[in-house]
Amino acid sequence: MKNIFSFIIFAAVVLVILFFVSSGKKPPLIPNDERHKIITTEAACAECHAPGKAAPLKLSHPPKEQCLICHKMKK
Hints:
This protein is mainly α. The chain is 49% helix and 0% strand. It is built from four helices and no strands. The longest helix has 21 residues, at 2-22. It starts with a helix and ends in a 5-residue tail after the last helix.
C-alpha cells in the first residue's frame, strides 16, 4: 500500500512539473500580412530581423537561424 501511495505522489509531482514547464511563454506568431506571407526560409526573416535592419531581434533572442521552428504563421 505504501508503494502505491508513493507512486501516486511521484506521478502527481511529475505532472505538476510538466504542466509548469509546458505553460511557459509561447513565441509570437508570424503576422499574416503581405510582407510575411512570402516567408518560407530563415534567410527571408533575416532581411528585416538581422542586426542593423528594420526590425532587429533582441540580443537575448534564442538561436536566430531557426525562426520557423518556434514561430508559426498566424491563421
